[in-house]
TrEMBL record:
Coiled coil, from the record: none
InterPro entries, per the entry: Globin-like_sf, Globin/Proto, Hemoglobin_trunc
Keywords: Heme, Iron, Metal-binding, Transport
Keyword Cell inner membrane: no
Binding-site residues for heme, renumbered to this chain: H45, H71
Pfam families associated with the record: Bac_globin (PF01152)
Protein name: Globin
An MF annotation (GO) of this entry: oxygen binding
Length: 133
């Protein structure tokens, strides 16, 4: 599919989110982590992601919450975030072109870097706490 327009509606966000997560679920590297964590709650997860991206990109405040805590204990490393970002970028580029598509990729990159940093931080803090007991 050739990119034809920018992200501009909730339907565009649903297309992006659904296409991205269908690829994630089938990915040999990160798919098992997502599928184990989410289990049969994919519809709820996708709904949350629609709201998250709609809030960020379209400034329609349909998401509330804190995105990091559910990810804090995931067994992931920088390589997992790199793969997540690779799939996100490929998916976005295959569907859309324009400033909001670019914004989505930038926000995803910043989020992946922040989540990776925070997960490492908490792991190291827990290790240091355990070592001092």
């Amino acid at each position: 599919m050739t990119p034809h327009h920018d992200i501009s509606t909730l339907e565009d966000i649903k297309l992006l989110v659904n296409t991205f997560y269908s690829k994630v679920q089938k990915d040999d590297f990160i798919g098992p982590i997502f599928n184990e964590k989410i289990g049969n709650r994919w519809p709820e997860h996708l709904q949350k992601m629609y709201g998250f991206w709609e809030t960020i990109l379209l400034e329609v405040h349909s998401y509330s919450g804190s995105p990091f805590p559910p990810h804090k204990q995931l067994p992931v490393s920088k390589e997992h975030f790199d793969r997540w970002m690779e799939i996100f970028t490929q998916t976005t580029d295959s569907l859309f072109t324009g400033p909001l598509a670019d914004e989505a990729k930038l926000r995803a990159k910043n989020m992946a870097e922040m989540f990776n940093y925070k997960i490492d931080y908490f792991r190291n803090a827990e290790k240091n706490q355990t070592n001092h007991l």
